[in-house]
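User: I've been trying to design a sequence by hand for this structure and keep getting stuck. Would you show me what you'd pick, starting by listing the structure so we're on the same page?

Assistant: Good idea, let's start from the same input. This is the structure you sent:
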C-alpha cells in the first residue's frame, strides 16, 4: 500500500526542527533526508527511522520492525504528533550517520 502524500508532508513538517528536511519518492514509497542524509522511510503510511548505536542506547524502548519485506529493522515511530521528540530523534540519528558520499559527475558522450 502506497503512502499518502499528505501523511509524508506532515512527517516532514514535524521533523523540520532537526534541519532541512527533503522527501524523495522511491520504489512507490518515500525516503526522508535531513541536510542531505537519508534518515527515515515512510512506507504504508508508517514512519520508520534508521537505527544507530547511539539512538538504540538513547531510545531502548522504541519498537523496531522492518519497513518492508527483506529490510533490516528500523525504529517504528507510532506517535508522529510529538514534534519535540521527533526533532530529538532525527537530530540524534543524523549526527550519528556518516556524511553522504559526493556524487560523481555524469559522463557526457562524445560524438
Amino acid at each position: 500500500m502506497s503512502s499518502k502524500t499528505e501523511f509524508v508532508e506532515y512527517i516532514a513538517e514535524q521533523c523540520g526542527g532537526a534541519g532541512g528536511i527533503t522527501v524523495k519518492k522511491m520504489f512507490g514509497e518515500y525516503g526522508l533526508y535531513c541536510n542531505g542524509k537519508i534518515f527515515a522511510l515512510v512506507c504504508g503510511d508508517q514512519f520508520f527511522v534508521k537505527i544507530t548505536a547511539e539512538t538504540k542506547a538513547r531510545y531502548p524502548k522504541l519498537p523496531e520492525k522492518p519497513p518492508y519485506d527483506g529490510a533490516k529493522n528500523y525504529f517504528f515511530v507510532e506517535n508522529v504528533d510529538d514534534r519535540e521528540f521527533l526533532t530529538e530523534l532525527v537530530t540524534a540519528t543524523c549526527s550519528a550517520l556518516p556524511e553522504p558520499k559526493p556524487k560523481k559527475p555524469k559522463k557526457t558522450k562524445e560524438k
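That's my pick for every position. To get oriented when you compare it with your attempt: The beta strands are 21-26, 29-34, 37-43, 46-49, 64-65, 74-77. The longest strand covers residues 37-43.
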